[in-house]
Amino acid sequence: FNCFLFCSYWDDWIRQPEQRKGRACIRPEVSRTRTFGKIGVSNGLFYEKHLKYIHLNDKYVPFTKLNLTYLLKDNYDSNFVKTVYESPIVSHQELRSGNIVQNGPVRIAYNTKTAYRSAAKTLGLMDDFRSGVPRTGYRGVVSFFYKGRRVYLAPPARWKGYDPSWS
Fold this sequence. Notes:
Blueprint: H1 3-6, H2 10-14, H3 17-20, H4 73-86, H5 92-97, E1 106-109, H6 113-122, E2 129-130, E3 133-134, E4 142-146, E5 149-154
């Protein structure tokens, strides 16, 4: 199977169901990618708006001395779902206006591809899907910070999986 016959970039290929096999990377707190600049296969696509802000961690982390059991799938998923869906719902307009009185994370709900893309575009996020998977999505949730506040752009809590037709 040659990716270049069927998809443009490696991240298109890796999000296809045949490669995912039901697996996923947990939502990226630290980017999973590194950019080499404007020169490359994508010809600088998205570089100025998104990619130039990616940088590698420069602080030492003693991973072998940390208790990382919270990252095991069952532990992580349970906590992640609870945190996301207990966060109060706000609109992307409310978020942008800064008129949210509660502290802590908030959630912007979406239930269609159009609603997702509208919110993502308004908030300056990449709004693409590959095989139904939104960029940086985990369980359909895209987590990001907006003016210092954690935000979850999330499908309904009863989410049943990615819909490949959302591409």
